[in-house]
Write a structure and sequence with these properties.
Elements (H helix, E strand, L loop, with lengths): L2 H4 L22 E4 L6 H10 L2 E4 L1 H19 L24 H12 L3 E4 L2 H15 L8 H13 L2 E2 L2 E3 L8 H11 L4 E3 L5 E3 H8 L10 H6 L3 H31 L19 H14 L3 H4 L12 H4 L1 H23 L7 E2 L5 E2 L7 H29 L22 H17 L21 H31 L8 H10 L13 H12 L2 H7 L4
Parallel strand pairs: 1-2
Antiparallel strand pairs: 3-5, 4-6, 6-7, 8-9
Length: 535
């Protein structure tokens, strides 16, 4: 009966692709129906607190599936998740009077995470993706459960989820159980201000009643790949920005090191080696260097035959990262269209056990991305080292110091970058090749996809830091080439950076400047400058 939640939040049917007016702070609203949500929807809800609503189609699908579960609950045939125990305890038949307790006990026992708290944006992404699966009409929960999950998102109530607890098989069990516990009015959570308060207090303040779970609902709330998928979606958004950033920063290093732009011409990429990512990065670097007086100054009379690999091969590496990101995006799109639960309600009304909760497809690409990110960071560090070495920088002072010997310049910035790159290499060791059996050998092969996702988040942050340090070094190198003029794009990037990071001069406290450069990249400031030139 859909009227069970109509008093909580009215829902209006929408034409496909339309968006309603809404009153949330950012003016964004995500409607969740039986189909997939988009990458933009995940980022909007996770990072920008967009409001969430269920469509009429979703509510109808949820209600139809619930009718199937109600019928099974009233029957005599044992059904996993409805009238049996879980995992290795699935052989235990649960009598009717204990089935509500079964669902509560499942959530409480599985909320067993440990370690540091997971970021708010990750938990919000996880909650949205679990809501998306509930809205598919395949899980058998009541509409009330899905609506209450949406209400938690809209109220800015974020369950406390911990770093460790998921093996990425049978879904992200512990992280999702911590979320389900808050739905029940238990556990730990923070409010919209990020401050932890008692869950009953947060729910009451938002006008949300705790849910009394019934048959199948506890299992449906915790049996999905939503945590690892949410982190993949957020990483893809970050890497789209960082690959564009890498092209611009690498071009600045090429320019500062008196490299040639001829190697970025389209005929060497589109015609001879048609990897799409490589062609995109080469074109970006060529446009970034257009009009450079520094590049023009050594087109004639330069006796160097070829630039070093870290300059000449930048499009091949960043382009390969782009292609890896596109492959991961394809996998994520498929997963966004999935309805992950076990058992599931099929279109014909039957209920079937399955293994779709196994996180291997997502775990593999999370690991693949970490490998690509490590290599991109490694190449960036090599360009930085070259810029600081007077034997290889073609006329720049050692370490770009104001008074070399008295001043150390940017020497230790490269040390910091090298330490981060070393960490990137350690984070590139795949998590998905590991498997530790669990649940008395019933769950004897697991994906470790959650661990792969946690690693990738650190890798992405580290890559941003590596590129930010290269940016600081390359910007100073360009300025030390004066009176030669930099390209309009690179000169504009240096000018924007100089609003927060000082230029060449004597030694000073360097750490804050590196942090400001990291924030410059995180905020998208470099990307906005480049976009003004059509990049």
């Amino acid at each position: 009966n859909l009227s069970r939640i109509r008093d909580v939040e009215p829902v209006t049917s929408l034409a496909a692709g339309s968006r309603p007016e809404c009153n949330d702070v950012m003016g964004e609203h995500v409607w969740v129906g039986p189909g997939p949500v988009s990458f933009d929807d995940v980022v909007a809800v996770a990072r920008r607190e967009a409001a969430v609503s269920l469509t009429d189609e979703a509510l109808a699908a949820i209600d139809r599936a619930r009718a199937v579960i109600d019928t099974l609950a009233a029957g005599e045939t044992p059904t996993y998740g409805v009238s049996t125990g879980f995992g290795a305890l699935a052989t235990r038949h649960i009598p009717t009077e204990l089935r509500a307790q079964l669902q509560r006990s499942l959530v409480r026992s599985h909320a067993a995470g440990s370690g540091p708290e997971v970021e708010r944006e990750v938990v919000r992404a996880l909650m949205l993706l679990r809501l998306k699966t509930l809205a598919s009409g395949r899980t058998g929960v009541r509409p009330l459960v899905a609506q209450t999950l949406a209400d938690l998102l809209n109220a800015g109530i974020t369950p406390v989820v911990h770093e460790f607890g998921s093996l990425g098989c049978s879904g992200d069990l512990a992280p999702l159980a911590h979320c389900a516990l808050v739905l029940m009015g238990e556990g730990r959570a923070t409010g919209p201000d990020g401050v932890e308060r008692p869950v009953p207090e947060l729910l009451a303040e938002a006008g949300i009643a705790p849910v009394e779970l019934v048959e199948k609902e506890g299992l449906a709330l915790i049996n999905g790949t939503d945590g690892m998928l949410g982190m993949l979606a957020l990483a893809l958004a970050d890497l789209d920005l960082l690959t564009d950033t890498a092209d611009v920063v690498a071009a600045m290093s090429v320019e500062g090191l008196l490299g040639t732009d001829r190697v970025f011409e389209a005929d060497l990429h589109v015609e001879l080696r048609p990897h799409p990512g490589q062609a995109t990065s080469a074109a970006n670097m060529l446009r970034t260097l257009a009009g450079s007086g520094i590049v023009a100054s050594h087109r004639a009379g330069d006796d160097r035959v070829q630039d070093a690999y870290s300059l000449r091969c930048a499009p091949q590496v960043t382009g390969a990262v782009r292609d890896t990101v596109d492959h991961a995006r394809l996998v994520a799109q498929r997963e966004l269209a999935a309805a992950i639960d076990n058992p599931v309600v099929l279109a014909d009304g039957s209920v079937s056990s399955n293994g779709n909760f196994h996180g291997a497809p997502v775990g593999y690409v999370l690991d693949f991305l970490a490998i690509a990110v490590a290599d991109l960071g490694s190449m960036s560090e090599r360009r930085t080292d070259r810029m600081l070495d007077a034997r290889r920088s073609h006329g720049l002072p050692p370490f770009l110091a104001d008074d070399p010997g008295v001043d150390s310049g940017l020497m230790i910035a490269q040390y910091t970058q090298a330490a981060i790159v070393s960490e990137l290499k350690r984070l590139a060791v795949p998590a998905s090749v590991d498997s530790i059996p669990s649940s008395a050998m019933q769950e004897d092969h697991v994906s470790m996809g959650w661990s792969a996702a946690r690693k990738l988040r650190r890798s992405v942050d580290n890559l941003r830091s590596v590129l930010a340090i290269e940016l600081v070094v390359a910007a100073r190198g360009l300025e030390l080439r004066r009176p030669l003029t930099a390209a309009p794009v690179t000169a504009s990037v240096v000018s924007a950076l100089r609003e927060i990071v000082p230029g060449p001069g004597g030694d000073r406290f360097l750490s804050p400047e590196l942090e400001q450069s990291i924030e410059f990249l995180r905020s998208g400031a470099l990307s906005r400058v480049a976009a003004g030139f059509g990049l």
